[in-house]
Amino acid sequence: MLDVARMRICVTGGAGYIGSITARHLIDSGHDVVVLDSLVRGRAEAVDPRARFVRGDIGDITALDDALPGCDAVMHLAGLIEVAESQREPGAYFDVNTARPVLMLEAMRRHTIPAIVFSSTAAVYGEPESVPIIEDAPTRPINTYGATKLMFEQMLDAYGTAHGIRSVRFRYFNVAGAWPDASLGEAHDPETHIIPRILQAMGSGQREFEVFGDDYSTPDGTCVRDYIHVCDLAEAHRLGLEHLHAGGDGGVFNLGNGQGYSNLEVVRACAEVTGVDIEVRTGPRRAGDPAVLVASADRARAELGWIPARGELHTMIADAWRWHSVSPQR
Prior knowledge:
The chain is 38% helix and 19% strand. It has a domain of 195 residues: NAD(P)-binding Rossmann-like Domain (Rossmann fold). It contains 10 helices and 13 strands.
């Protein structure tokens, strides 16, 4: 890590999966952290005890005015993230992912906070014209989740032009893994992400797992995704923040490993790591799922100096399996 000034950072969603691991990484790297989380989907026990915790929503002005004073930047990881749910409940997604964050941006103005790092998504690209996807590819989301994330990116452009708030936006692909010692990991209820779903099925003794669709235009007919370890993701967020603080240009950065794996390949990799075999059955497609999403992360490597340390799929699965094995109730 470069010798950089100690910062005070408000991490929204810091009681969630990615947020809690990112907050810990920031603190371990020498920064001060304020966690703002409503605990609607986050877990209080995941909040690093070294952080100051403010319980509240990003649309709660009182909570914002408690959390933000004295901060040098915001790391915005709060929000709703499930593609299928966004298709069923679009109003909730536009509310939580776009309407409420406007209040957060206005609070940043009041407290003269000049920088924000935003957790965006590869879903803004929709069905890509070519892979790996570069940051200049067209943004044509095919689900409400992606549309709300893209809308907030556009808000950041507007606030940058009008008010000088500088931003880094990370469009990342499928996040997996856990803190290597299994002290923090993914704990959604219900769980919808493929790797934890497979591992939960294996850990509970189930011998059958459902994949959503087998008729996509891919080698084996199942969706292909790029996977990134959550700890590598956390480091990228720190690097983006320090880049802004040092006066670097903001902008959009993809985060991924540049390698796509089909759903069936992921099932096989889980079996190899755990030693547990599981039968695959095919269910219907999920609404809003593109066939292939694979990242080019060359810009993050070149401009931020980001080098993933745990980029192997089997490493991500092994870390996640360790977490699920010691924390089955989560």
